[in-house]
## 1
Amino acid sequence: MELKDYRTQIDAVDDEIVRLFQKRMDIAANIAAFKKENGLPILQTAREREKLADVTGKAREDMRSYLRVLYSLLFELSRTYQEKGARTPLYDKIENAIENTPRLFPRSATVACQGVEGAYSQLACEKLFVTPNIQYFRNFEGVFSAIEAGFCRYGILPIENSTAGSVNRVYDLMIEHHFSIVRSTRLKIDHCLLAKPDHTQIKEVFSHEQAINQCAGFLKSLGNVKITCCENTAVAAQTVALSERKDIAALSSRMCADLYGLKVVQSSVQDEGNNHTRFLCISKDTEIYPGADKTSVMMILPHKPGALYKVLARLYALGINLLKLESRPLPDRDFEFMFYLDLETSVYSEEFVQLMCEIGSICEEFKYLGSYTEVV
């Protein structure tokens, strides 16, 4: 036989598969209607387990693992089709937020930032707001608490850096606090080595842990210099300015040199020139502004094989792009994790509606963090 003959056979089999797939999904829709009439849940774990065992048991041994993958995906597609159109309290909440959020993002607001004047969070805040009233807090916990207490309408938090990776402390606090993401932005980070104008040989450098990681190569080139972490790069500059020592320096922004009367000993000392940090703007209430095309969620999944696969298969079935997947250990559980996902999908799309109505059913816990746009 020629290659074209085999392809003709494949085409004939594919035609039959399409016909049978559509027939199976039509039956699944009838099952969904029956379940709804009788108050039965869509997910029937025992039935899926029995069916998977039956199907793989009928197959040749070399085909069983392939059939297990195929039917696992088929179950997800079938469940998605059965759940299509079902509304949930979460989607009602999202729809209400879309209808009641103002059409324009505010130009001015009271905003919580971590650190002191000159912090990169301040720069990110000024990129999002024209005339913000900035309130500074010593740590990230303070920003979350200010939002929850209603002391500030918005808060700015760094979430990840292109060089040093995720800001784990913020992810851990996201598990503990209630908030909504309303905007995000990316800020070009340019670290400078700052010292007093009459400084002597540098023996100690102060900065935030993330900045230290971003400048690891440069710091190594300084030789035997002590590295000291502090809560913020601007705090590091302030510490150097207030100290009587002349042998210390800070990794901070150029703006902090002017703010605290320091000298730029060396500029752009980060290891990567393309060094950006992504910041989130959070609020207490759910606000969804026009054009929102990114959504963030957190979830705890059943502690068993295939749990994460089911979520990813659902995204694949709906054609939703996964931008980021982060996992953080749960403090009160051994070797169990909270998963954080950034998704790329318009808040107005049918796929988004369907996902928000369905995904909670395959999670132990599900937390919608907000839908928003990113300011570049």
## 2
Amino acid sequence: MKTILLAEDDLDFGNILKQYLEISGFEITWAKDGAEALDYFKAQSYDICVFDVMMPKMDGFTLAENIIDVNPECPFIFLTARKLKEDKIKGLKLGADDYIVKPFEADELVLRLNNIIRRAERSFKTIQQTEVLSISTYTFDTKRLVLNCQDYTKQLTQKEAELILFLVNHKNQLLKREEVLTAVWENDDFFSGRSMDVFISRLRKYFQHDPSISIESKRNVGLEFKVS
């Protein structure tokens, strides 16, 4: 049984959602505010987290930032009644796996949760097939999810590691956006595309210590991970 940490301050909505997810086969820990959710997360592990954005004591975005500090590998999604583009972009930058605007169909939420969990499990198995890769002057430890270059060390998230692995395996090739999205996100919709853009920006910063490595975008086509 997959475990979910649900953070939702609306008691009526939270109770209905908790019951529906339990009927759908999940084990639910329900926190009524962000601070309580963080305490739960520190006490045990979860397969995925579902956070409302607007909550007392600690909002969903701040909660996600703290969750990432504790365990950057745990996937999470946001639920919100706000349709602001700025909120969606902020959620993407934090590394959210999805951003769902209320009201929504409960069946759709269950489907998205199961897809994210399966994708995370497959990603972990794929990354673990190789131990240490050399990328010019960098080393990529796929077991520990660590990227090294001389005095620079970066602890990666699972999604970052999976994207790096895919790019390295297709280095010096022009890749269509759809190829990358299908391989790493298993979806090429708008949300996944914006999420990929955020992750590509991160990787450019991680690899900036070696000028022989670059990630070049080809407008309306795709991108190329260049290693000279």
## 3
Amino acid sequence: MASENNGSRSYLVSIVMVAVLGGLLFGYDTAVISGAEKGLQAFFMEAKDFAYTDGWHGFTSASALIGCIIGSALSGFLATSLGRKKSLIIAGLLFFVSALGSMQPEFLFFTYGEPSFALLVMFNVYRIIGGIGVGLASAICPMYIGEVAPSNIRGMLVSWNQFAIIFGQLVVYFVNFFILGDHIQPLVEEMGHGIAAIAPQAQWTVTTGWRYMFGSEALPAGLFALLICFVPETPRYLVSIGQDEKALAVLSKINGRQRAVAILQDIKDTMVVKTERLLTYGAMCIFVGIMLSVFQQAVGINAVLYYAPRIFGDMGMENPMVVTVFMGVVNILFTLVAIFTVEKWGRKPLLIYGSLGMAVGAFGVAMTFGQSGMELVTAASIMVYAASFMFSWGPICWVLIAEIFPNTIRGGAVAIAVAFQWIFNFIVSSTFVPMFNMHLTEGDHFGHWFTYGLYGIICLVAAWFVWRLVPETKGKTLEDMTQMWKNRR
């Protein structure tokens, strides 16, 4: 219970847990394709009115990222005009529509089970709708948590959003694994011989399995859209629209009445001007936010997360989905490291150490991938690479983006930073396969060492960037950011 001097910790935890469901859906939606893409590919390869090429499959696998770019670009406008809460309700509804539409894209307009170019377009429309929801959630969920959390535990609470993202990915790995069951994945490279001729068990995967995988998201999406209706709007947004009494009520429940009055005054002092130009606090403020997002993606982590089953399959592992699930568990454990150390060690040390650990893992993969007898070393290097990301750039980037910008430009600045994140996510995801498969001579592994060698170099540059340009924000209030950037101009 909240009192004059102490807020209600249970109240704070409950609203943060609802908000991080958006992060879980973020992870769920972006990772569901990893289990469904082979069955989906085989389904559309049976179309008679067009040839479903690798190019089309690459676009279809990544089409949700187009929606992510759109959603993140819109997030600043929606968060500022409608508020953080209403924007998250919209995100939840988009997740729900996308899940059902991706499961049955034939709804209303097409014959069930008959692949065609028009059906492919409709499927991608539903995936883009879900991507818009992901883009909104990716920007606004950490913003929401950052604006309701007390400064002394803000980093830890925002880090739970990244935990939810990785947990969502792990959940969908398990869901895909159980949906697939005894049904084997189709050998899409031999589709010319017909699925039934290759393996009768694969037919279910092609006609039905991928549908269940996409449709399974509807349950958490509907729950999120419902529960978010019961959380309060953030105090910072309420002050920005002149509802100081409502802001004080929320702050009092979280911090206690006495502390809430002081926090409210700090917020009002930084919002004398309701809107300011994005560059009011200097170009470096925006540049740092953008580059945090760029580096989070340019280090190449999503190339591993999205294509994990294929990567482990190429290494000769009999059941790549099992190894993928194991990697998901490792990711969860190392995300917890960030959650419980971010307020003790600070943001910058975690980012720097994580960048160096990722570089070690990436260079390890580059030197051993495809080498006979080195499979376990390669797998271990991938685990080091992923684990290092999970205690650093995964959660800490979101923490900094949620807290680093001054109140008066936060909505627009976060939107720009997160839009760049999804743009580079798309670039990395769409370039990974062609880079990975490059050959200078027949059968060499040039693409393997070039791709991961490049990611390793980017990791080292990221460490230098954090060391030289990123300010430490541990223990600072959101209102402190205004003075910090004024001093750095």
